[in-house]
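Complex 447.
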Amino acid sequence: MKGNSYGRFLGFTAFGESHGPAIGLVIEDVKPGIEFPLAEIQKTLNERKPGTGKFSTSRQEKDDIQILSGVLDGVTTGMPICLIVYNQDAKPADYEHLKNIFRPGHADYSLFQKFKIYDYRGGGRASGRETISRVAAAGMVDKILKDIEIKIYPLQIGKIEATKFSEFANELNWPDETNYDELVQYLEKIKSSGNSVGGIVEVQINNLPASLGDPVFEKLDANLAKAILSIGGVKGIEFGDGFQLTKLTGAESNDQIDETGFLSNHAGGILGGISTGQILKFRFVVKPTSSINIEQQTITHDGKNITIKVGGRHDVCLIPRLIPVAKAMIKLVLADAVSYQKLVKSQKQDLLDYREALDKIDEDILIALKRRMEISQLIGKFKQENNLSIENKERENELLISLKEKARELDISENLTEILWQSIIEKSKEMQCKTVASTVPKNKSMS
Ligand SMILES: Cc1cc2nc3c(=O)[nH]c(=O)nc-3n(C[C@H](O)[C@H](O)[C@H](O)COP(=O)(O)O)c2cc1C
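Predicted structure with flavin mononucleotide bound:
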């Protein structure tokens, strides 16, 4: 699983652990000759850094980004671009006592169940520090997004809700000046008790053109949901009126249209996974910070009961830290959607744009082929365990007939489809035979 790689048009692979030497990313397929936006990337990284305010972690990192490859004299060379941020305020020794203990709320338990090993130092790869790579990558797509404007602000932190909106500078990005002091006092109380809180964040995207997003697996809302939910600590997302839609009837919730445009926006600016040109609206839920200074029950790696107080350096509420990360993920999703839409609309492209698109499609075909072969091997094993013959001419014929029908619908050559599938089927059978041969005991022959 390429779980550390993201995207199609701006594809990148992220790496690094919270208390390892560095966090970084490798970006491939960037055209040569483009001025590299290092200053913009550094600017977005500075927004992601922990604040110096009283509710922020005391871990202080400069997060200075360095280019290791792919850029010469400020211009891309077409080679893989490797960007890196060295961890300078890492304190791995602080985690030594937690080495064999699952911290409640953290990914320790699930990582251990899956891999039987994990980097216990500050959450390793599950730490918020991995988000440096996402934010750095997003610093490259501003040019594609042009005047699309992304507004993100907390709607609720713990039990305090924002109800009156105005713009004023504060360390929590809080939008309601009328209850800001109440919020600060509330968080001070939470912090002094060693506890933490979560909240709700609202996103409004303005100047978004209609037509972004593709049926059926590349819907804009589906891609945004995946991107936002991939951020550590995010537990839910709703578009438009979201869960409140349950309280409306169809007559109330449909966004009616007249010649002036939409008369309401309950759907949040997306219909059928495609942007309508209205304001795109969604909200997401952030859980309370897992590391708290309160004794809690857990177990050691060998299953013994133990109580721990994780303490250490952490934010009372993750929301201010998550806002720049969410913005970065939104930018990456929109950049993908905008780039695809350019192809759909056949806007003027140069040869490199077309080649880039083709290369991505070829890569997708290869990945699909790999999965097909893996499944063929499993089928081979299943057939062997159930004494079924590898060859099934009837099913092959049925498959070819239905594929040729689909080819006709899609206006693809039936002949080409047949040639391609015949060779795929042959290869699959070969793999199935190999699987069977490798699992048959030496003294038994295959029937
Ligand atoms: C930018 C950022 C900073 C974070 N900082 C902390 C932190 O200081 N302490 C903590 O317990 N969790 C922190 N987290 C959340 C953990 O990464 C998260 O709790 C963990 O991955 C498990 O949550 P999950 O099940 O939602 O993935 C942070 C997340 C992000 C995105």
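The radius of gyration is 26 Å.
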